[in-house]
């Protein structure tokens, strides 16, 4: 049976107005220019109201980033100082996952301790979300390319397993596909515990997904 695994709702079409805590803005922090996102929202998770303030604060970690004490340190710092902003998903910017913080801390705290410093309290890992229990961002969770992109109208949504949701959509237009996707109704399977934007019948969405055969 041919199904499609839906991994991300990329854009809502015809949706009502959303209330934002602040608009998304381009990332202007030099340390974070290489991140896989280019929009952020202030204030950040360290309560900096502007990116100018965030640039001054994140600069204290440049030497740690340069010595590469942890391969995820730059990602973690940018997720805190220039957090990923979603246009129509959350009112607040997305936090890094607890595991990302722990990996950065485990790699870099020994370096700090050589100079009689400890891991900063402002970057504590304890209150950050766990990947399978909430919304958070990690390097492994970012997919840079998906072969199927469709414009579709939601027909029905049903839970078919503990972490599995089946969404039947009517394909309106195929923007990108490595296989033939006909017009008409197609089942989409979301096999994840992440808190994704809720879809309801009648909404039109753009969905990125990939083929799954069983």
UniProtKB/TrEMBL annotation:
Transmembrane segments: none annotated. Coiled coil: none annotated. SUPFAM superfamilies: Frizzled cysteine-rich domain, TIMP-like. Keywords: Developmental protein, Differentiation, Disulfide bond, Glycoprotein, Secreted, Signal, Wnt signaling pathway. One of its GO terms (cellular component) is cytoplasm. Residues 1-17 form the signal peptide. Disulfide bonds join 24-85, 32-78, 101-125. It holds the Pfam family Fz. GO terms for biological process: canonical Wnt signaling pathway; cell differentiation; negative regulation of canonical Wnt signaling pathway; non-canonical Wnt signaling pathway. Gene3D superfamilies: 2.40.50.120, Frizzled cysteine-rich domain. It is found in: Secreted. InterPro entries: Frizzled/SFRP, Frizzled_dom, Frizzled_dom_sf, Netrin_module_non-TIMP, TIMP-like_OB-fold. Its main location: secreted. Belongs to the secreted frizzled-related protein (sFRP) family. This is Secreted frizzled-related protein 4-like. It comes from Scleropages formosus (Asian bonytongue).
């Amino acid at each position: 049976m041919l199904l499609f695994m839906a991994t991300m709702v990329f854009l809502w079409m015809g949706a009502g107005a959303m209330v934002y805590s602040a608009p998304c803005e381009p990332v202007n922090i030099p340390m974070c220019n290489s991140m896989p996102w280019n929009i952020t929202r202030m204030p950040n998770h360290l309560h900096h109201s502007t990116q100018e303030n965030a640039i001054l604060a994140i600069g204290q970690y440049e030497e740690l980033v340069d010595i590469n004490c942890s391969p995820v340190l730059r990602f973690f710092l940018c997720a805190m100082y220039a957090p990923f902003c979603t246009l129509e998903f959350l009112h607040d910017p997305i936090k890094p996952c607890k595991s990302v913080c722990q990996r950065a801390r485990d790699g870099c705290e020994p370096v700090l301790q050589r100079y009689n410093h400890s891991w900063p309290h402002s970057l504590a890992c304890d209150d950050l979300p766990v990947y399978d229990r909430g919304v958070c961002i990690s390097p492994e969770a970012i997919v840079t390319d998906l072969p199927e992109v469709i414009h579709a109208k939601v027909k029905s949504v049903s839970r078919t397993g503990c972490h599995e949701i089946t969404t039947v959509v009517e394909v309106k237009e195929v923007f990108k596909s490595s296989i033939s996707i006909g017009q008409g109704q197609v089942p989409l399977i979301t096999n994840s515990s992440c808190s994704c934007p809720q879809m309801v019948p009648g909404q039109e969405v753009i969905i990125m997904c990939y083929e799954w055969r069983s």
